[in-house]
């Protein structure tokens, strides 16, 4: 079941709550001094772990909607290949570099991840009859691009189940980019989510939309231009994709913690 109001609420959450983009200012001498004196020893193991299991890299990744509008653009972060400016915290810069290799990864045998196609990861598990997709990213466009990239590099099988781990939109908003409502309605695809998922999604993305939008400004730096002195990274990923959002009602809800 698609909920139009939820899509609107999600748009409010991701879009800027302020009408005016703030003007950038020069970094203070105090900040320059603080960053200069930060002593962080980076272990090469971080880089090794970040790229472990990489099967195929999606170089210069840009995703557009059906009208040509850019929904996701990893190429905008190419500046991360250059020297870190004195205005960026060393740890943030390193984290941004670790998040800058979009592609297909094998976690263990039978479990894969698509990373760097959105702020969240899409995890894909090989089942006996098809693929089980865990979390479907923020938008239909990024989800479709992610699963298409997966299919190009791994054997083709149908999607038989979707799992929503929780009610943040970057974990369910792209669902209708990879499955259809009819397939869910006709029980060709099982959709699994925690008990209360729809209520929480409604509460967070509609009832609390204004508050969530304000928080997102600080969390994602979405009013800042993508640049070495602007928006660099969000820690868990680059930033939230902006495209078409969707939702389907779970067909199976989980209300207990399995013991096996």
Please tell me about this protein's structure.
- This protein is of the alpha/beta class and 260 residues long.
- The protein has one domain (4-15, 46-254): Metallo-beta-lactamase domain (Metallo-beta-lactamase, Chain A, 4-Layer Sandwich).
- The chain is built from 8 helices and 10 strands.
- The protein has helices at residues 4-14, 29-37, 44-51, 90-98, 140-153, 181-185, 197-207, 209-220; strands spanning 54-57, 62-64, 70-73, 103-108, 111-115, 122-126, 131-134, 159-163, 190-194, 252-254.
- The strands form 2 sheets. It has an 8-stranded mixed β-sheet, with helices on one face. The protein has a two-stranded antiparallel sheet with strand order 2-3.
- It starts with a helix and ends in a 6-residue tail after the last strand.
- Mean pLDDT is 88; it is low at 1-5 and 8-19.
Total count of domains: 1
Main sheet: strand order: 1-4-5-6-7-8-9-10
Contiguous uncertain segments of 5+ residues = 1-5, 8-19
Please tally the β strands and state the result.
10
Helix count, DSSP H or I runs of 4 or more residues: 8
